[in-house]
Amino acid sequence: MKIEEQEKYVYTRLKQEREKCQMSQLELSLESGVSQNMITYIENGKRTPSITTILKLCDAMKISPSVLFFSAEDEKLTAKKLILDLVQRYM
């Protein structure tokens, strides 16, 4: 997986986790000390957060930073789904 794809995945996961925690960007900003504008930029892929920023956001949401990153298990599930889709298409 390319770096750009990994970055996009992290930004998407950050937004998903924030929404799962039922937090607005403003609430996350107040809890984490990261500006709301920066959170918006990160979620939209316009800024690359530092490790410190990621840790602050994760701490505020009470999640492990590892949930934001693509794992080998995710790759296996994606590949499995693709293979099953292809098999069904040609049966």
As residue ranges, the low-confidence spans are none
Beta-strand percentage range: under 5%
What structural category characterises the helix and strand content? mainly alpha
The overall strand count is: 0
Shape: elongated
Largest sheet: none
Tally the helices.
5
> Could you give the distance between the termini?
29 Å
Order of helices and strands: HHHHH
**Overall pLDDT, averaged?**
89
Radius of gyration: 16 Å
| Helical residues, percent | 55-70%
Structure report:
Helix 2 crosses helix 4 (51-61). The model has no long low-confidence stretch (mean pLDDT 89). The chain contains five helices and no strands. The longest helix has 18 residues, at 3-20. With 91 residues, the protein is mostly helical. The chain has helices at 3-20, 25-32, 36-43, 51-61, 72-89.
Features:
5 helices, mainly alpha, elongated, 69% helix, 91 residues
Brief digest:
69% of the residues lie in helices and 0% in strands. With 91 residues, the chain is mainly α.
What does the secondary structure layout of this molecule look like, with pairings?
Layout: H1 3-20, H2 25-32, H3 36-43, H4 51-61, H5 72-89
